[in-house]
Amino acid sequence: MPFINRITSAAAVALGISASAASADTIKVGVCVSWPGYAMLEVARQKDLIPDHDLKITIFEDPLGGHAALAAGQLDVYGCTAEYTPLIVDRGTDVVNVAFLNPSYGVDHIILAPDIEIADLPGKKVAAPQAYIGHLLMGIWLDSQGIKPEEVKWVNLNADEAVGPMLSGDLAAGYMYEPWISKILEASPGAKSVVNTAVPDVLQTGIFMDALYMNTNFIAENRDAALAVLKARWDGLEYWNQNTEETNKLLADFLQWPEEDIGYVIGTDGKSFEGGIYMMDFDESARVCGVLDGEPPFGMANGSMVDSISLTNEWWIKLGLMDKTIDASKGVDCSLMGDLLATGFRQALSAH
């Protein structure tokens, strides 16, 4: 697939991240893009919810660059989307997906440029970040319209990078999320959203999901620290649930977003925003992992994490990004969730 490649593993070095393994009291955390769903560890850091460890958090704005840094041991923990998991297995990197965090609840869209009809797309440029949720959503949508991946010209751009080309008319379609969706629709009359991830059948698959990854050497060498950072992520989420207005302001400052835009992604009720994302509490995530009895949200099956990754693998093969079926279970480690559960940790959060 003729993507314009932007894999920048050197970005980690440019950002001053050491390649050495983390000490037990310093945990190097990566955030793949400026996004509220990945920022609960910043809440934990600021609110001293992980007092025995120092969280060093870096925002990449480059999903593949962050994954490269994690695989190289320059990061210990990485928040990004789950659809990269099959590639971790295929490439044999020292990385596992330790938790599903929050499904897209309608925040991810494909936007069609003004004066472009679906039938016009073959031969046109479409934008989506390679090996990322937008690539998957764009490919699945094109397939549903009878358009083969090789019939369009793919451009490897994240949502913020695609705004200018969309407005200038260089792109026929682009993957977008807020606040960029609103900016495009307001500035470009006639542009329209043609698909989003709030469809119930899509939610049930679990494939459009944010996830928490860890380097396997970090887990093996500093398991207590790995458990501490996993717990801190959920403690940060609970702080947000109980102090939503304050925390949304904190997140806006951290991510350099307008505060209003934070609410349009994670909401103001401490749980979710329809048209944004749904923040799974620990119990919900543990059920998807299969370490706690009960039904996860949105019709997902208990223990369905591996099945979701297998389904993603199938789509990556259809889209030409992968050429073989992998053992999805090798990309998942639910033992940390299980260990945290065994300590008596539970969490069920409701909207207020």
Task: Write a structural description.
The protein has 2 domains: 10-103 and 205-342, D-Maltodextrin-Binding Protein, domain 2, CATH 3.40.190; 109-196, D-Maltodextrin-Binding Protein, domain 2 (3-Layer(aba) Sandwich). Helix content is 40%, strand content 16%. The protein has 15 helices and 11 strands. It has helices at residues 10-14, 40-46, 63-71, 85-91, 133-144, 159-168, 180-187, 200-205, 216-221, 223-242, 244-255, 259-266, 282-289, 305-318, 335-342; strands at 26-31, 54-59, 77-81, 95-105, 109-112, 125-127, 153-155, 173-176, 192-196, 209-215, 276-277. The strands form 2 sheets. A 6-stranded mixed sheet has the order 2-1-3-10-4-11, sandwiched between helices. A 5-stranded mixed sheet has the order 7-6-8-5-9, with helices on both faces. Helix 5 (133-144) links the parallel strand 6 and strand 7.
Query: What number is the mean pLDDT?
Result: 91
Q: What is the oligomer described by this structure? A: single chain
Q: Structural class, judged by helices and strands? A: alpha/beta
Q: What is the helix/strand order? A: HEHEHEHEEEHEHEHEHEHHHHEHHH
Count of β-strands: 11
Radius of gyration: 19 Å
Distance between the ends:
46 Å
**CATH architecture annotation name of the largest domain:** 3-Layer(aba) Sandwich
Could you say what the CATH topology of the largest domain is called? D-Maltodextrin-Binding Protein, domain 2
Largest sheet: 6 strands, mixed
Read across the widest sheet, the strand sequence of neighbours is: 2-1-3-10-4-11
